[in-house]
Design a protein that fits this description.
The complex is a heterodimer of chains A (191) and B (86). Chain A is α+β, with helices and mostly antiparallel strands. Chain A is built from 7 helices and 6 strands; from the N terminus they run αβαβαββααβαβα. Helices cover 37% and strands 15% of the residues of chain A. The mean pLDDT of chain A is 96. Chain B has 86 residues and is of the alpha+beta class. Chain B contains 2 helices and 6 strands. Chain B has a 4-stranded mixed sheet with strand order 3-4-6-5, covered by helices on one side. In chain B, α1 crosses α2. Chain B is globular and about 35 Å long. Classes of the chains: A alpha+beta (191), B alpha+beta (86).
């Protein structure tokens, strides 16, 4: 097991997290394998990966919601500028594998979020219920290199199966060692 | 029914106040009820809808005729329903 996977195992156990931590990587490579049979919302693929551990390679044709194409750099806007979009051009979004990921997505409940906020030394959150998992979580975390929380959007809750107590926190991979260090400090204090 | 730049508009869908995903979901549903080749005008006031409505309809093979800003915060999207013989 790699150091990253060991660290994520420590975090999962501490959080009592039943779902998988989902890695997201944006790549300029046009990857032809590993695409789903049918299109879905980006937030659906993320939830599916969190529940089942499945990994997906996704490009424009795989999304039935057009927002991730813009938020994650697969397409440029034509008519208006869009908030929270990765302006670099990418061809494939890899969802699932944590190794080499840019961003880690935690599908969590409020208590787990509280624990994560302690591990991260606080989270400054901005969200407004639109372009949620793609924009508010993944894109903002990728762009600003800091944790980003979303309480999701109607797309995620009404069409992608997220439960009322589920939310998504995006964390840059480079923050994982400090999270584990903090967990070990907390454990030493008896938490 | 109305005309816009010589194009006959068969149906108008006013979804001002809606945000995504209902902007493109309602647009798709409206188009589903129309005949092939008919033209739908969608009125929106949510800026991202000017991107996600045309894109989602275009991905299903429909023809985006125009996307036009018609007010401070209002846009009209005109789309023709796909049809094999169009």
């Amino acid at each position: 097991m790699t150091k990253l996977k060991e660290d994520l195992k420590t975090i999962k156990e501490y959080l009592k997290l039943n779902s998988q931590i989902v890695g997201v990587k944006l790549t300029k490579e046009d990857i032809s394998e590993g695409h789903p049979k049918e299109g879905q919302f980006y937030c659906w693929f993320v939830r599916q990966s969190a529940i089942s551990g499945e990994a997906f390679n996704l490009n424009e044709k795989d999304f039935t919601c057009p927002n991730p194409e813009l938020c994650l750099g697969l397409r440029e806007p034509k008519y208006v500028e869009v908030e929270l979009r990765v302006k670099e051009k990418f061809k494939t979004v890899q969802v699932g594998d944590v190794e080499n990921a840019d961003v880690l997505l935690f599908m969590i409940n409020p208590r787990q979020l509280m624990e994560l906020s302690i591990q991260l030394g606080g989270i400054t959150a901005t969200f407004k219920g639109e372009t949620a998992v793609c924009g508010e979580a993944t894109a903002r975390c990728y762009i600003e290199k800091r944790p980003s929380l979303t309480l999701l959007c109607h797309g995620a809750r009404d069409f992608s199966g997220y439960k009322d107590d589920e939310m998504v926190l995006a964390v840059p991979v480079f923050m994982v060692p400090d999270m584990v260090k903090r967990i070990n400090e907390l454990k030493a204090l008896g938490h | 029914m109305s005309e816009k730049s010589g194009i006959k508009i068969d149906k108008v869908l006013d979804i001002k106040g809606e945000i995504c995903p209902y902007t493109f979901v309602k647009s798709k549903l409206a188009l589903e009820e129309m005949e092939e080749g008919e033209v739908l005008k969608v009125i929106v006031d949510y800026p991202p809808a000017t991107e996600n409505v045309p894109r989602s309809l275009e991905k299903e093979g429909n023809e985006i005729i125009s996307v036009e800003k018609v007010g401070e915060k209002m846009w009209e999207i005109v789309v023709r329903k796909k049809g094999d013989n169009i």
